Every structure is written in structure tokens, then in C-alpha cells.
């Protein structure tokens, strides 16, 4: 018997059941092998008197005894598995677990025997507390660990953070990669962007579902995952970990896992914010509710602010708060009201500020709400409102009958203070960027070109962050026809994108994404100079090279061949097909 055979019989000897080794020994030391085999069959066969007379029938039909025993064995195993699952649900709690523990004690020595292993695993799965000794044996054997149910693994993980970390780590990497792939996707659209999927849809994602399954109802494991997410957020500053923090809690909420939801102090706040994210707007009723949670943080419990700030730092939350802020500002213009007089607007700023301060708060472990700069409310926001007024005034002027003085030009300068705010104040920068996205979406070319120069230098380079560039490239597709104008392209590419391309690989990628989508609209001379300017360097990553090659291929297809340029084909010949701009 080879090692495979040995595994098949693993543990039988300990139970006093004869195995292949015993038969081998019997046959080696006997004088009459046939008699010895017959005796072995009698002693170890199925001990049913009525069966003895029936077995010769099977022999007449040429059915091997192995096949017969195997089918009986499979049938019995199925019955046993059903019985184990039934025991786990019947009678008093102590009694049913006592039965299962006894069964585990009897069967555990056969856990490595492939045919019996499912039964042992099933017994362990139904035990809320598998004896420590057995768990250690499972943990020490790679194959056993792999084969055991997630219910058993949870019991192992809760006392082995490192092992749990090894299981969770690849999932977290996959999650971040999926987010980045979405941000850099080649499909550029104003309708389907990073923020399009609803919270409920996002929670169906593979990683969130797997983590939810791994955690089950185990608060200890949930806390471990949150600790991993906090640590990774601190180490990388990657805000997608904040999204996962909220998604995981809401996924457990969907499954009504009260064991965890009731002990997470952020649950109700996250639930309310989740509804706002779904609507992409914070309405008055929910604003009151959210404010209640923030005002309700008691003395001595300030640490919860660290968790709340992480929930608010989720890009989906920031997106909702920023969009709501822009909407409020427009409403205030119509109502002749100043920002400082709007409690709803002040609450949005308070939450934005808490979200944007998440990293500093968790890093410093100083749990108090960041101070709001008065100038943000008294100077910056009124300035944004004045831009809205400029647009209204310009539009009205355009409609008035023109007199001798000629048309009034669109204001082209921006207040120095606006640029300074974008450079020095994080919240102002975030709101300013969302205002620029808003005017781009409205196809307001004048306002866009006026404010664009302020984006070259922003707080911590926020204007060159992936989320902003992803949204901006999507919105720019609405201004597609403007790309035929040299001046527009010079302002956009030379004045903004190319200022950062060489030092920021991600910007290089976003520009190439945009051109792949809009190259047929760009003025040919400009396209040529852009192609030169965007050529990858030796230091460029694979993604940039790949995008550049795709762009080059598309541009090659558009070039007419030399033959077409020199000869005018006669009408009888079929005209050469040149790809139309639509078939990009």
C-alpha cells in the first residue's frame, strides 16, 4: 500500500477496525489464503444475517463486492450527514451539543480518511465551540484547514489574527484594484461613472460578500477587519478603505445581523447617510437626523468620531455632501441669503470637514471635530455664489437687444482669493472642484475656461486626483465640439493637464483616456502636438504605454493612405473606405 492507500485507511486502527495493512499481514502469515480472505470478509463485512444469502446473487450479475460496499457506504454516509444536521437542531441546547461532541470524539481520528472526512467536518461545523485541541490539529494541517467549513475557520481565526489577516489581505488588495480599474476605465461617460452604482448594488460585490460571509455574526472578526481597514487607511491614505468600512457595515445591516449592528456605534449614522448617498442628496429631514447623531456624541465617547470621520471620508459620502453643497449654494442665490444664514449648509460643511479630517484624526488619536475656518463661510462660499450670479447676468445680457456699446464680454479674470483658497483650504478646494464639475456638466464653456487656471495648483494636488479627473473627463465629453478649437485645447491641455503629466503618471493616463474617446474631435494640428507631448518615457508604466499604443493605432486608422491623397479614383471603382469618426 502506497501513501495514498495509507491515507484511505487513516485512523481505522485506533478504532479497532481492520484495514488494508491488517489484510496484508494476515495473508503473509497464513497457509490457506482463500480461507483467510473468506474469514476476513465475514468478520469485516456488513453484519446483516439476511444479506449473506443475497450476496451470491450480486456475484451472478458480475457486480464486484467493492461496488456493492461502496454504494452501501455512500448511502450510510448521506444518512449520517442528514442525522448530524438534524441533531444540531433538535432537543435542548446542551443535549444536542453533547451528542455532537461525543460523535466528534469518536470520529475525529478518521478525519484524514477522505471517505469519512465530510462527516467529521459536518459535526465540527454544527458545534458552536469545537474543542481547542481539535482546532489546533486542524490548523496545523494545511489540507484539513482548507477542507473545513467557514463556521470552523471563524473559531480558528478569532484567536489567530495573523492567520485571519492572511485570508483577508488578498481580498482587500482585490477591492482596491477593482476601484482603481473603474476610475481608469476606458469607457468615458457622463451617465455611467464611478459614482453611478447604487449602494445596494455595490454591496453585492464579490469582496464585500466574501468578507460578510467570513465574519458571520462574529463581533471579534468584524472588529479585526475594521482594525485592518484603519491600519491600511493610515498607511496608504487610500480612501477606498473608508468605502469598504461603510459597505461592510451596511452589508451586515442588509442581512439583519443585529449581533454586530447593535454594537457598532456608527450603525444608525451610516444607515441614514447610506440613504442620502442613494439619493445623491442630503434632504432636510435626514440632515436633522445626521446632526442629531453628531451632537449626541457624549463626553468620554469621543473616540466614535474617528469611526464617523472614516464613514464620512468615503468618496461616495464626500460626493453626496459636495453635490448637496453646490445645490444649496444655487438655492441661496435665488433666495438672496448668505451662506452663514443657512443651518443646512453649515451642517454639510461640518460633515465634509469631519470626513476630510479623518486621516489626521485617526493618525493623531485626537478625537474632536476639526475647527471650521470662518473665512470659508464668510468669503469663499459668497465668492462661488458671485460666479453663479455672473453667469445669470451674462445670460440676461445676451438676451437684451444689443446697443451701440456692443456685447458685454464674459468675465475672464478670477479673484486672487479664489486661487488662494483652492491652494490652502481643503474644504474650499473640494467644493471648488465640485463647482467646476457642475459648470462643465452644464456645458458652460465660459465659466470652465475662466476657472480652469485655478486648478494648476490646489491643496495637496486634489485637482490631479483620480476621482476628480475621472469625473472631469466624463463631463468634458459634453463639451466635445469645443475640442475642435485651438484656444480651448491649449487652455485645457497645455494650461492644465500637461503641467502635471510628467510628474504624475495618473494624469498621463487620464489624458490618454480622454483622447482615446475624443481624438476625432480634436483639431488635427493640436492632435499631432499632443501625440508628441504624451509619448511615454522610459520611466512610464505599462498602463501608460498600453494606452498610448491604443491611441497611436486609432490615429493610424484615421490617416488617409498616400495613394488616396495623390490619385482621384474614377467613379466606376469602389471608393476606398475611410473609417468615419463615428466608428472610433
In short:
The protein is mainly alpha-helical. It has helices spanning 3-8, 20-28, 33-44, 49-60, 65-87, 93-107, 117-125, 132-140, 142-147, 150-157, 161-183, 199-202, 206-215, 219-236, 240-254, 258-261, 267-279, 284-295, 304-313, 315-335, 343-356, 358-364, 374-399, 416-424, 426-441, 445-451, 466-476, 486-501, 505-518, 524-533, 542-558, 562-566. The protein contains 32 helices and no strands.
Beta-strand segment tally:
0
Strand proportion, as a percent range, falls in: under 5%
* Count of structural domains: 4
| Helix fraction by DSSP (H/I, runs of at least 4) | 55-70%
Number of helices: 32
Average the pLDDT over all residues and give the rounded result.
87
Largest sheet: none
Shape: elongated
**In terms of per-residue confidence, which ranges show pLDDT below 50 for 5 or more consecutive residues?**
564-576
Query: Whole-Å distance between the termini?
Result: 66 Å
Query: What structural category do the secondary elements indicate?
Result: mainly alpha
What features would you describe in this structure?
The protein has 584 residues and is an all-alpha fold. The protein has four domains: 48-153, no CATH class; 160-264, no CATH class; 281-372, no CATH class; 419-552. The protein contains 32 helices and no strands. It has helices at residues 3-8, 20-28, 33-44, 49-60, 65-87, 93-107, 117-125, 132-140, 142-147, 150-157, 161-183, 199-202, 206-215, 219-236, 240-254, 258-261, 267-279, 284-295, 304-313, 315-335, 343-356, 358-364, 374-399, 416-424, 426-441, 445-451, 466-476, 486-501, 505-518, 524-533, 542-558, 562-566. It is elongated. The two termini are 66 Å apart. Mean pLDDT is 87; it is low at 564-576. This is NELFB factor. It comes from Pandion haliaetus. Residues 558-584 are annotated as: Disordered.
